[in-house]
């Protein structure tokens, strides 16, 4: 039996012993200004909807650990919002598409994978929601009362995502071009930890976005905002950047 998003109150009680301190971000973490969507977005993975032209593009993800193995391939992302949903898209260069997992809550972080971590009430706690998605479109989601309680049985509701791969999957003898992903997350998944049904203009959440690229030992982790850890690992809320919701 899995926990649906409506069970978050019980999960918050369960994890009340953890993450009771607010997130105090590192100096110089980035800020992303999230515009409202100007037109409907079709979640098909192609990133061609006119609304995306109004979205700010992140700088290419950085590689904070120069000694890690794997190719250093470019990843950029964009975000938008409306009254109902948060929208996220990723554009990933990739010369060798690799992924094995296909089912919900499989360990997709072992594949070519992108992630987004969202902390909707960073001034109150270090709670955040994780969404990890491989290039085949499989989703692994969880609720983290960092660092003590990781609730992998928490399951988000009505999340939609699609990917498009430009190349051949799991065929290392040829050269691929990359992959794209579109993600739509309803605000209802954050209502309890955020304390409101949806963000308002001017609200600030904390966020990080990551990409795992490659398989086995030849893997590289890149990030929108460096975690500040000594070895390649994405989970550290102090390293999250700011997600600012704009009125337009």
Q: What can you tell me about this protein's structure?
A:
With 248 residues, the protein is mainly beta. The protein has helices spanning 8-14, 191-194; strands at 31-36, 75-81, 85-93, 113-119, 127-134, 139-145, 149-151, 160-166, 178-186, 204-215, 218-223, 241-245. Strands 1, 2, 3, 4, 5, 6, 7, 8, 9, 10, 11 and 12 form a twelve-stranded mixed β-sheet that branches.
Secondary structural class = mainly beta
- Low-confidence regions: 1-6
Q: Name the beta content range.
A: 25-35%
Q: What is the count of helical runs?
A: 2
How would you spell out the order of helices and strands?
HEEEEEEEEEHEEE
Tell me the number of strands. 12
Main β-sheet, in a few words?
A: 12 strands, mixed
Residues in helix, %: under 10%
Output the radius of gyration: 17 Å
Roughly how many Å apart are the termini? 41 Å
> What's the overall geometry?
globular
Short overview:
The chain has 248 residues and is mainly beta. The protein has 2 helices and 12 strands.
Topology:
Layout: H1 8-14, E1 31-36, E2 75-81, E3 85-93, E4 113-119, E5 127-134, E6 139-145, E7 149-151, E8 160-166, E9 178-186, H2 191-194, E10 204-215, E11 218-223, E12 241-245
Parallel strand pairs: 1-2, 1-12
Antiparallel strand pairs: 2-3, 3-9, 4-5, 4-10, 5-6, 6-7, 8-9, 10-11, 10-12
